[in-house]
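ARCHIVE CARD
Drawer: 12
Card no.: 0347
Subject: one protein chain, sequence and derived structure
Cross-reference: see card 0346
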Amino acid sequence: REIRNFLADRDFMEVETPMLVANAGGAAARPFETHYNALDEDVKLRISLELYLKRLIVGGLERVFEIGRVFRNEGVDTRHNPEFTLMELYQAYTDYEGMMELTESMYRYLAEKVCGSAVITYNGIEIDLSKPFERITMIDAVKKYANIDFNEIKTDEEAKKLADEHHIEYEAHHKKGDIISLFFEEFCEDKLVQPTFVMDHPIEISPLTKKKPDNPELGERFELFINGWEMCNAYSELNDPIDQRERFKAQEEAFAAGDEEANHTDEDFLNALSIGMPPTGGIGYGIDRLVMLLTDSP
């Protein structure tokens, strides 16, 4: 209720989008597949809410959100469930900086409303949501915690050699950007206990994200980490249909090379982008993890 109140105050409209889809895109995950008898069509359960919500932005709704169940056909542990509740929101005429402000404000508001204070305790650890959240780039986080500067690494081969030296497993199709992400997961995530925005992810792992104008190898993307968990994932949305087609093509190549979690080309979405999507900030929040955090539940 408080999430809805917060977003209503900012003029967001709550919507519902399809769960059974021809193309399960918007995230890196394996979908569940099923068969639609009436149309004799194979369909998938959605893995994210992204591509339909962006169509609504194209259609002229400038602030939309959905709280919905999504389905990912993969491992189960205390932080992953094959079906879970995701909230995604999209706002026209802003970018990932706007999404950081919204996220920080919303988390603080929710903690105060639900827990009575912006300083909460999880598993005996005090987490302070009252002061400005830290910000660090992914490359700087790897530099800080793994003592490796990926700004110095120029080629995919050099990155793979480093991964071998540090016993980090990767797949043959992985590029430098994928390796940076693997280093981040291995050396940094569990250190990020207080709220931290990890920014500027490699473009290889951000197929729907606008490039940074001053460094096209990186995307205008962030994830929020609290208690070592990824709590949300956000971008300045890619709204260039030519660039988006190139990214889908790279994802198709990754899929062909063995990446079962790669995105597939969505022609209907590309058509929507070609009609025109305004500059947009978008974000997805894991609601189950948010509930775990605010209720101090293991």
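Annotation on reverse: The CA atoms of residues 31 and 264 lie 12 Å apart. The longest strand covers residues 83-92.
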